[in-house]
Each structure stands twice: as C-alpha cells, then as structure tokens.
Amino acid sequence: MKRSLVLWGVAVLVTLFSAGWQKRSGPTYPVSVDEVVGGEALTGELPRSWTVGDPVHIELSSTADLSGEVEWRRWPTGDEWERVAFVKEGDVLVAELPAQTKKAAKIEYRVRVSDGAADELRYSTRLRFKGAVPGAILVVHILAMFLGMLFSLRAGMEAVVKGDGLRWQTIVTLICLGGGGLLLGPIVQRYAFDAYWTGWPVGEDLTDNKLALAVLFWAIALWQQTRGRWVWSVVAAVVTFVIFMVPHSLHGSTHDWETGEHIQAMVQRFWPLA
Q1: Pairing mode, strands 49-51 and 120-130
Q2: What is the model's pTM?
Q3: Is the same domain home to 128 and 200?
C-alpha cells in the first residue's frame, strides 16, 4: 500500500509538471512583456491566439510617456505591412488589430514602443485565430488528456515493479487517450479550426500525430501484456511522456490565404527586433 501511494504521488507530480509545461511552452501561450522603457516598467502580454470575429486587443502598461505602433500582415503572405498606432488610455497603451473571419488564419505583428529618445522596445510574433469551442467539450477533452498522462505514468511504473494493477491502469490510459483524444479531440478541432483531423495520412499536424502514436503504443502494450511482456508498457509510458513534452499546437493547422485550404506550419513564439 505504501509503495502504491508513493508511485501515485510521483505520477501526480510529473503530470502536474507536464500540464504546466504544456501551458507555458505552447506556441499559443501569450508572450509576457516585462521591460524598462523610458526609465519605467513596461508590462503586459502579446497575444498569440484569438477568437475569430473579434478585434485583437494589444495592451501594455507603463507610467512613462511612451508612444508606439503595431505593424501587422497576414501570414504566410507577402502582403504590405499595415500600421496601427498605440493610443494612450491612462497608463495603458492600447492598439486594436482588425478581426479575422477564417479559422486557423494567422497574422504576424511587430510591436514598437519608444520614449521618443533612444530607449525603444521592439518585438515580433505571430497569432492564430480559432473558433469558439463549447466549454463542456473542452473541459472534458483536457481532463481526459491529462488523466491519460497520469495513468500512463502510473502504468509504466506498475510495469517496472510488476504490480497487479498494470492491466486496468493500461485500459484506463487507453480510454482517456483514445476517447478523450482520438474521439473528442477531432470535435474540438472542428469547432476551433474547421477540420476534424489534420494528422497522418491527410496532413502533418504534430498534435494529431503524436496522440495517435501514443494510443498505438498503448494498444501494443495491452496486447503484449497477455504474453507477459511488461517491458512494452514501460516503452509506451516513456513514449507518451516524451510526446507530452512536445509543445501543444507546435506544428498545427494554418489557413492558406491563397488556396483557402489548411496547411501545417510552425507557430513562432517571439523574437526581438534589432
């Protein structure tokens, strides 16, 4: 009993770490701005994900007398850059970029903030638009995915110690990853990006492909358990952990402005501009 509690505790801690990593490392997580411009702090976030149909609000806070602008264009295109000036509202610099109506559409934008002298901050990043997903569906999907990670880790450790709970833990893992991922995931993606499946063989979506790979390994592990080959469960747990360490949506759906079709492309985080 004591050993089981310790193993569950380790599995929970690693799963929580994985959840935090997925949230912070993903290419749609906002870029945090915490700089000093004009002798005062400049703070805020640069969004990298937005809902279709809504104007994009970019807000940066500072008590200094600052001005600046945002340049943006559709991505990937060779469009001319359009400029939107920041408006000072109290201690907040506000810029509003036009709404987009295409799901999975991306824009790139460059932010410049200056004190009018030599002190200047410039960043560039990309943003992807998505459709609204019903809250209940999204919550169940996310919960199932991280329960799948939890039981995957626990089953892998159970295989190492050759415990009696390996089979039922494997089955729960498959239910969570298969049901919450392979079945419910495409529904979430349909709401968000107008496509049920963009992984192999119809596309190269990394999120879809890595989920299918995890389910495949656990299906093999369950089969091998009937033959006494517990090592496959360890392999499946390691593969699933590595997969969860790959940032979510890293190589995801992107609207092709020329063809109107979906392609897969990297969502870039941010980079300073010289």
Answers
A1: parallel
A2: 0.83
A3: no
Domain of residue 54: give its range: 31-132+268-272
Of the candidates 185, 142, 118, which has an alpha carbon nearest to the alpha carbon of residue 18?
A: 142
Sequence-distant (6+) residues with CB within 8 A of 134 are 191
SS3 category, 55: coil
- Indicate the Cα dihedral angle 142, 147, 148, 151, nearest 10°: 170
Model pLDDT for residues 33-49, shown as the tens digit of each residue: 999 888 889 999 999 99
Based on the domain organization, do 92 and 151 belong to the same domain? no
CA atoms within 13 A on the CB side of 37: 27
CB-based contact 82:33 (threshold 8 Å): no
Coil/strand/helix, residue 151: helix
Indicate if 150 and 210 belong to the same structural domain: yes
Among candidate residues 108, 145, 109, the one with its CA nearest the CA of residue 23: 145
- As given in the structure block, the two tokens for residue 65 are 């007398």
| Residues 80 and 117 sit within 8 Å (Cβ to Cβ) | no
Total domains present in the chain: 2
* pLDDT of the residue at 272: 42
